[in-house]
Amino acid sequence: MERETLGILDASKSGSRTGGPSFSLRHRVLRAAWAVTWLLLAAWTPAPLHRWRAMLLRAFGAQLAANARVHGSARIWYPPNLIMEENALIGQRVICYAVAPIRICSDAIVSQGAHLCTGSHALNDPCFQLEARPITIGANAWVAAEAFVGPGVVLEEGAVLGARGVAFRNVPAWTIFAGNPARFLRERERFTIPSRS
Q1: pLDDT digits (tens, 9 = 90+) for 154-173
Q2: What is this structure's pTM?
Q3: Most buried of the four, 20, 57, 104, 192, by CB within 10 Å?
Q4: Three-state SS for 128?
Q5: Cis-peptide, bond into residue 181, ω within 30° of zero
Q6: Residue ranges of the alpha helices (H) in 116-195?
Q7: Pick from 179, 102, 190, 97: which is nearest to 144 by CA?
């Protein structure tokens, strides 16, 4: 598997400031093919067609559980870096900038307009090299509307990031954080989802 697929960028490649690409030609062609496929076959589809959109994502390398759901207006930058477990949901207009892996665990919700961003830049590098770190949204966690989750962040099990909240640090299990930067508000009552079997 390529280092890029794992979200690890080759520091020897030209960075943004030197004008060279951060990704191989093959990687860029796959992303272009994916963007066209999603635009023509999925972006306009009505909400109930989750299975169709999931099939397209799987065809491009995403790992989705059978009942994972992604809305058509969502944008997935690189499908091989998307992992969705049972009953996970990506809502309308969500942006998954999946330079590194994004894992959305079982029963987690990423609400409309949220942005999961695994990529940033090395601020002290003269080439402004692209850096990538994975994001995990834990089981029963919720990223509320228009919230931003930065590179390397883990929302632990049952954690909530409130609407328009900005998280650059991990959000502990069964807590509610909100604001910019996100701050602790209170504990969340613990629960378990009944078995589906």
Answers
A1: 999 999 999 999 999 999 99
A2: 0.87
A3: 104
A4: coil
A5: yes
A6: none
A7: 179
Q: Where are the domains of the chain?
A: 25-185
Model confidence over 8-23: pLDDT tens digits?
Answer: 454 444 455 666 677 8
Amino acid at 194: P
Nearest Cα residue to 60 out of 43, 76, 48: 76
Please state, for a pLDDT cut of 70, what percent of the chain lies above it: 88
Of 119, 116, 118, the closest CA to residue 146 belongs to 116
* C-alpha to C-alpha distance for 21 and 116, rounded to whole angstroms: 22
Q: Map tokens 């909530």 to a residue.
A: 160
What would the two tokens of residue 26 be?
A: 């093959």
Coil, strand or helix at 187: strand
Backbone dihedral angles phi then psi of residue 32, each to the nearest 5 degrees: -65, -45
CATH 3.40.50.2300, applies to 25-185: no
β-pairing, 183-187 with 175-178?
antiparallel
pLDDT cut 90: percent of the chain above it: 77
* Whole-number Å distance between alpha carbons of 183 and 32: 38
The C-alpha atoms of residue 25 and residue 12 are separated, in whole angstroms, by 16
Token code pair at residue 13: 């490649």
- Phi, psi (5° rounding) for residue 168? -110, 0
